[in-house]
Amino acid sequence: MKNKLFPIILIIIAVLLVSSVIPESPLYYINWALFSAIIIGLAMLGFFWRFEKSGATSREVAFIATMASLAAVSRIPFSAILSLQPTTFMVMITGYVFGPQKGFMVGAVAALVSNFFLGHGPWTPWQMFCWGMCGVAAGLLAGQAKEFKFVTFTVLAGVCGYLFGWMMNIWHWVGFIYPLNLQTFIATYIAAMPFDTLHAAGNIAFSLFFGRSFFNILVRFRKKLSIEYLNKPPVNMLKREDYNVPE
Fold this sequence. Notes:
247 residues, single chain, 8 helices, Arp2/3 complex 21 kDa subunit ARPC3
């Protein structure tokens, strides 16, 4: 069940999306804002389920909570400047060093926690998903690389600034814009372009100034979390005094 649930959720999402564009389907007339929230919820459920079944240690859970809290707190002082915040960078550098799964968890939890200060609403699940996917993208970029791909990471940070905004624009369009047509869709994205550009520029700046130092710090911390098993010699090769058995 551990390995089957995630593909099942993907199939359910695909079926729902296809059904929503078929005129004869009962989902054809569903409210798009509600429908998109269901899709986002199912997608996050898959990621959370995989993490739940991954067998994460208490140290890993504590690390995720720490990085998510740090990313959430760092967002609050920048709230006066729309779209400019270091949260995306911190989520991405975590995903780059520790992998897509932990990157998603840090991004999702950071959005949830920070909105306790900045305000919850129907945008919260979207922010959780978008920031989580930024962590996933950075984790996929790293792959098995041992060195920090500074230029590539910085470029991806800028791209994620735009992708984050474009995904959030979909929520704004389906939830607050009427009528839903191509003209209003384009107008929504044009109106949001300055904010998305500021977000991308901020991500690039944070990556340029703090990318390598954060990478080195997290790599050292990852080594402390890792466990190496040494091959034990056969029992018959151990001397009696190695057992510390009294005579």
